[in-house]
Amino acid sequence: MAQVREIMTRAPVTVGPWASVREAARLMAQHGVGSLPVLENSTLLGVITSRDLRGVHPNRVVLDVLKGPPLCISPEASLLEARALMEEKGVERLLVVKEGRLLGLLTKRNLAFALGQQFDPLTGLPRADLLRDELERHLRRGLDPTLVFVDLDDFGKLNKRLGHTFGDQVLRAVAERLSAFAQRHRGEAYRYGGDEFALLFPRLRQGLLPHLPDLLEPPLRVEEVGVDFSLGVSGGRRRRKRPGNPRATADDLIRLASLASTLAKSRPEKIALSEDLEVTSARAPGARSGP
Questions:
Q1: Beta strand pairing status for 229-235 and 271-273?
Q2: What pTM value is reported for the model?
Q3: How many Cβ atoms from other residues are within 10 Å of residue 204's Cβ?
């Protein structure tokens, strides 16, 4: 996935803390920007926006309107990390900083444009490509992420019986429930494709599994029609770095979670773990009892 460095505004126009508000407004107008990082002797103090200048006497200095410490992000951060930070802090711009040095400025508009092609327009969720990229990124960082694959039950029958418009309503309702759950547990929801979704958490599964039944309760209903879905879980059970190829490992985690979600459809609890696949395979007719 693209990193912040690829879409940030490089070498942004800056202003000193002792410059006047009039000068800051002039710089914004001259360069057509709505914000200015504030630097003093190469030290980053923060950022001011055109909104900060409204109603302020032009002879005041920039330091008078500067608010709080600067909100920064690494140039190597992913676009999803940047989006999450902006949403969490309720800001529209981030300063891109590495080793205390200002490298650029990332605005919400630039971020939205870059992400626009990678989000599902129906549900607003990131698509499968972003899931794979984020999963690989976690693995490269030495994390052991937990992946939950979410598969709707009998969605094709719902579509045939009630129409595709109703089907779209169902997909949006599922996306809302998954997004809310992901936010509560510091994860991210994705639309994998069709009636399949995924949840990714950058941590081991032990703290997450007790909460998974919350996804299924209370039962989801759309216009009084019940909507069931099944959950397959992979990853997140080791306590050391995963060796090998992150791309191959990501593919394997997605495959296992998908297969587990299919297994979960036959269970009353609607949840299955990847290791349950091994048990099911061993019990299958003709399976060997040992090596």
A1: parallel
A2: 0.65
A3: 17
